[in-house]
Amino acid sequence: MSSCIVPVSSDSHFSIHNLPYGIFRPSASSAPRAGVAIGDFVLDLSVIAAAGLFNGPFFSSPSCFSESTLNSFMGMGRPIWKEARSTIQNLLSGENPSLKDNADLRKQALIPMSEVKMELPASIGDYTDFFCSEHHTKNCSKIFRGEYALPPNWLHLPVAYHGRASSVVVSGTGIRRPMGQSFPPTSDGKTPPYFGPSRRLDYELEMAFFVGPGIELGERITIDNAIDHIFGLVLMNDWSARDIQFWESQPLGPFLGKNFGTSISPWILTLEALEPFKCEAPNQEPPCLPYLTETSRFTYDIPLEVAIRPAGEEKQSVVCRTNFKYLYWTIAQQLTHHTVNGCNVRTGDLLASGTISGPDKESWACLLEQTSNAQHDIVLEHGGIRKYLEDGDDVIFSGCCKGDGYCVGFGTCSGTVLPAS
Amino acid sequence: MSSCIVPVSSDSHFSIHNLPYGIFRPSASSAPRAGVAIGDFVLDLSVIAAAGLFNGPFFSSPSCFSESTLNSFMGMGRPIWKEARSTIQNLLSGENPSLKDNADLRKQALIPMSEVKMELPASIGDYTDFFCSEHHTKNCSKIFRGEYALPPNWLHLPVAYHGRASSVVVSGTGIRRPMGQSFPPTSDGKTPPYFGPSRRLDYELEMAFFVGPGIELGERITIDNAIDHIFGLVLMNDWSARDIQFWESQPLGPFLGKNFGTSISPWILTLEALEPFKCEAPNQEPPCLPYLTETSRFTYDIPLEVAIRPAGEEKQSVVCRTNFKYLYWTIAQQLTHHTVNGCNVRTGDLLASGTISGPDKESWACLLEQTSNAQHDIVLEHGGIRKYLEDGDDVIFSGCCKGDGYCVGFGTCSGTVLPAS
Ligand SMILES: [Ca+2]
Ligand SMILES: [Ca+2]
Ligand SMILES: [Mg+2]
Ligand SMILES: [Mg+2]
Ligand code: NI
């Protein structure tokens, strides 16, 4: 099935095979509602619902698409997600002619993407950040502790920490350079810390998933059920102020060095859309404990890129090419581990992968790694050098799976660095 | 003013000087609403509001007390909080006779505390845990790193990490012993980790405050304004599984060792109620950076206790006596630091102090410290010894400020350890 009632170029991220969900406003003054990206358009699902076109056995006349977050829909579970996807795909392919043959409805339901304003797709109760890339972990260890090695726990469990839910923002939101305390890196240990704008502002290329149906406190999600609790994936930039982070992190981990802003892409790709891009996950040696052992272990082949566009520069310079498949711990393992102690999760919770670095330098997914914490420069293809980010830099993540003649992509997750104030 | 239309014994935590806010159900089947504790009664504020008795210049006929959380009221700010307090105090003293002289209204509005069911008082967007006790920090450092010392950053900033909001529960909720990975403490470093119920389940005696009016991302709260953003305080038990925590925490901090449950007391004491118990906070040397320097530095003198009541035992054994005033960093400094980087905070966010240990062993506020991580026993006054908590143990925190002939107390924050499942 490749035909679509909307023109979709073969390199569009939003083919009829994709159909990612988001929350948008048709114009700045209109109310937020749910939509699906298709080519250069957004399909307004509240209009499709009002037209009575969701009328299947599980999912009929839903009100959830008129809400300002996707949480209700995300909580309904896979049978409903599949039925909704199938309905939307049939409408957009023309197999069901109800949209194709109704010019008024098409006009009302299909809005040029250039006109809409995207919003955060969900109300996020809790946000957790994992640390699932072996290469990122070893590179960080080398930079901070002089040893290219994994911590003793790392091969046994997906290390994670809690992040700040309040400061997760949608792609396109400007990120203000944070003020904070830092410690002079050349210090003798007696010099006091200084206060001011971060001098080591960084990005971290990550992906994150949204929890679908949650569980109650005291329950746990088993490894073979984990996928049923996962709604879909987004790109994520875990902006990091390395100078603030280093000074504050002992002994309890990152705090103000991270919580000034975390950007996510507006479109959530479902696991159904990613199904054709399933691939083997890295072999785990030593084998993990039984509660983390997957009957069917897989991940997704998602090529990812980071580009920087300095202020006043028209062209983006790609500075990183990596892939989601490099991660050692899968999304099923992350969610299973998170709940093994009885920790409850709620619909809309966001679980991020950690920085997705691969084996070669081009794939190292933050400036900390690429410049060895400002010991080297990187040279931008279209002008400029960087140790860390400068004010005005636009940082653009993208991710796109290539099918046979079509794409299933995430669009972009971007943010411009605003000067400290 | 000590007279009250309800009998209040001189050792009741809930004198007319206190008037803490909570969310309760008059019976298990009725809807949650806001109340104030007075003696052995709860004053139903939704009834008082419906009777038209909130009719001041700032706060008139409010609907917020019929809601299932205090968030709306907490977001309104100090002028309204003060007016509401004054209205309630005048009604309960009889100075305003509208409640005193109306038997029907009294019957409807005053419910025996023994009949009500308390709920979580707020919807908590984000929960942060600080590490503000010098003695706790040094004791932990001694146990883990063999050195009775503070980390280099500790005297310069209030160290903190993000906790899990979803698993904050109200006092009285049973706490299930978590399952998880741990590392044999006697290991040679090659033995693999094991999986099972935590063998080192602990409490941490803390206090926490709720944010009143929040701020937007990119703004900050200055040190002299911080108190205006603080609604009030509760007792908190940051339940901790030390074996899970130790194995997982490097390098990003605590995660599953903490997020299986965090208990708070149901009644929120306002800063107005605590005003008579203001005292000097510890002198800070070296002086902190200007953004953390208080024009008027103070804390509160709040005596605190921990008791354990083993299953089947009638009597509680007090195992810790400490005081909120020992904390090195004040609540104003905590909130100011949290937002100095532009991190937004929302009404209902919970910021906890960290374990409140004092100088002497009796004041060490977790078993980790009291038993040096299971190297010693503690002997319970009413039977039993403990290295860590056992199934069935009821852990009861209390805190009470003694005025002249009256108390301003928090009641208790308790939880019973349920066996792993
Ligand atoms: Ca990260
Ligand atoms: Ca704690
Ligand atoms: Mg972040
Ligand atoms: Mg806890
Ligand atoms: Ni096709």
Can you describe what's shown?
The structure is a homodimer of 421-residue chains. Chain A has helices spanning 45-50, 71-74, 78-93, 97-100, 103-109, 134-145, 242-248, 271-274, 331-339, 367-370, and strands at residues 21-25, 33-38, 41-44, 110-112, 117-119, 127-130, 160-162, 168-170, 175-176, 179-182, 194-197, 201-202, 205-211, 230-237, 240-241, 262-264, 269-270, 278-279, 299-300, 303-309, 317-323, 350-352, 378-379, 385-386, 394-402, 407-418. Chain A is built from 10 helices and 26 strands. In chain A, strands 6, 7, 8, 13, 14, 16, 17 and 22 form an 8-stranded mixed β-sheet that branches. A 5-stranded antiparallel β-sheet of chain A has the order 4-3-2-1-5. In chain A, strands 9-26-25-20-21 form a 5-stranded mixed β-sheet, with no helix packed on it. In chain A, a hairpin with a 5-residue loop joins strand 23 (378-379) and strand 24. Chain A is an alpha+beta fold. Chain A folds into 2 domains: 21-119, Fumarylacetoacetase, N-terminal domain (SH3 type barrels, Roll); 127-418, Fumarylacetoacetase-like, C-terminal domain (Fumarylacetoacetate hydrolase, domain 2, Alpha-Beta Complex), CATH 3.90.850. The longest helix of chain A is centred in the first third of the chain and has 16 residues, at 78-93. The structure holds calcium ion (CA) (2 copies), magnesium ion (2 copies) and nickel (II) ion. Nickel (II) ion (NI) binds next to loops of chain A.
